[in-house]
Amino acid sequence: MFIRAYLRASTKEQDASRAKEDLERFVNERGLKIAATYTENESGASLQRPELFRLLADCQPGDVLLVEQVDRLSRLNASDWERLKAEIAIKRVRVVALDLPTSHQLVQTGGDEFSARMLDAVNGMMLDMLAAIARKDYEDRRRRQAQGIAKAKADGAFKGRPEDEKRNAALIAMLKGGQTWASIVAATGVSTSTLSRLAKRLRESETPA
User: Fold this and answer.
1) SS3 70
2) What does the pLDDT read at residue 12?
3) Which residues are identified as catalytic?
4) How many CB atoms are located within 10 Å of the residue 14 CB?
5) Residues 80, 47: contact at Cβ < 8 Å?
6) Could you list the residue range(s) of the whole structural domain that residue 107 is in?
7) Terminus-to-terminus CA distance in the chain, angstroms?
8) 171 and 132, same structural domain?
9) What is the pLDDT of residues 103-144, one digit of tens each?
10) I need a labelling partner for 26 at 20 to 30 A (CA). Which of 19, 90, 178, 194 fits?
């Protein structure tokens, strides 16, 4: 059995490795060690998480996927959560979360088959519950954020994201130089919607008053 730690944060501004010490303390207290750590900055509401799936690909039956909290593993909607659970089940991986006490015994080997199956069943039910709670928290925060933005717009206080004037000036210069949208996107990674907005601004500035 190998214990594989998964560390996730939503944005690059957050420290995905923040919980590493807590995970190491958890296994050390049980005389165990973490075999590998997988860290990424991706949304828990998306299945587009390369490091999580690299972890699962590296797993052998009986390995442990260790997380600080269930929401580090999933803020997924119901269908995506079922897809992830199916992948975990196929690999026969045990999910252990520090905030899910029923899972802690899964890092210990031994015990009779009946007890092991009962523990798996109870832990699976609790894991489903916490995953659903994590999803609801995600949706609630998104809704409150949207409501706050709508209110700020109504009050005339919402300004949106500050414009990156230096970047936009460089993009406009590329447009003026005759570069194609495809080449600009490939070179800079900027979205076509941003280019469309800047191209419109360029046309308006070149139109005689």
Assistant:
1) helix
2) 66
3) 10
4) 10
5) yes
6) 3-138
7) 74
8) no
9) 998 887 666 777 778 888 888 898 999 899 989 998 998 888
10) 90
